[in-house]
Every structure is written in structure tokens, then in C-alpha cells.
């Protein structure tokens, strides 16, 4: 069982996934909203893999092992589980970005703000826990959001096409691109 900070960070990641599911549910009648939300969600998985790859190259020790006197509120991960960039922050930012991409067009600005704030809180909890430096979580946030946007740009046309092929989503409004 983890500490309160660990549990809160994990709970917020689940909440972000639930926000994305809600955004997709509310946008189920719009192929473009569904496509960009699903593609952005795929960006969260891509972010998780990419941050792990970068960690294996950078190999920065965590503050709970590298800085004498740091008291970690969470269990300090073992050596070899590197600090930079923060995987939790990257996933949180990627999920929040997917929520924003799927919610903004539907004018659910409150959900966009809630998702962005949740990602920032996840990042802050990782620093407060003593398992990441501030630059780890800042890089994770930028990395995760960037990857989610890049994956959404690449996959949205394909996803929209597949959704229409299986009969999901609605008609493309006049003047919108037909992916």
C-alpha cells in the first residue's frame, strides 16, 4: 500500500482516464471529437513508452537516493528506476491533452481546466513525495502533452476513417475536413 501522496497521484491518473472517457461519451455523435479523443488517448500510451525510453538513456538518480537528508513521503523506487523525465507527469499531461482535444470543440471548458489542473497536481505530488525533482515533472508535462498532440495529429485522420467504416460518430458538418 502506498502513501497518501502516491495514492492521490494514482487516483488522479484514473480520474484523468475517466474524464477522457466522459469526453468521448459526450462527443459520441461527432466523428471528429471521437477521433481526436481516441488518438490523443493513444498519445498517453505513447508518452508512457517514450518517457521510459528517455529514462534509460538519461539515468538520473531520484532525489530520495541522490540527495542526502531527503525524506521521501513515498517508497523510493529502486536503483535503475530513473527519475528524468517523470512518467506519471507525462501520462497525466498526455491524458489531460486528450481530454482538452476532445472537450474543447464541445465547449466543455470546465473539463479542460479540470484535466489540466489534475495533471499539474499529479506532477506536484511526485515532487512533494520526494521521488522526482521539479525539472523531472516539468519535462514530463511538456513531453506528455507534446507526444499526445503529435500522435493526435498523425492518428486522427486514420481514426476518423475507421470510426466511419464501423458506423460510429455522426456526419461530418459542412465545411469540415473529411479525414
TrEMBL record:
**Coiled-coil region:** none
Q: Membrane topology type, per the record? A: Multi-pass membrane protein
Q: Where is the Phosphatidic acid phosphatase type 2/haloperoxidase domain?
A: 35-152
Residue spans crossing the bilayer: 7-27, 33-54, 109-131, 137-155
Which compartments does it reside in?
Cell membrane
Pfam families of this UniProt entry? PAP2
**InterPro entries the record matches:** PAP2/HPO (IPR000326), PAP2/HPO_sf (IPR036938)
Q: What keywords are assigned to this protein?
A: Cell membrane, Hydrolase, Membrane, Transmembrane, Transmembrane helix
Instruction: Enumerate the PANTHER family for this protein.
Output: DECAPRENYLPHOSPHORYL-5-PHOSPHORIBOSE PHOSPHATASE RV3807C-RELATED (PTHR14969:SF62), SPHINGOSINE-1-PHOSPHATE PHOSPHOHYDROLASE (PTHR14969)
Q: What is this protein called?
A: Phosphatase PAP2 family protein
Q: Which organism is this protein's natural source?
A: Rhodococcus oryzae
Q: What is the lineage of its organism?
A: Bacteria, Bacillati, Actinomycetota, Actinomycetes, Mycobacteriales
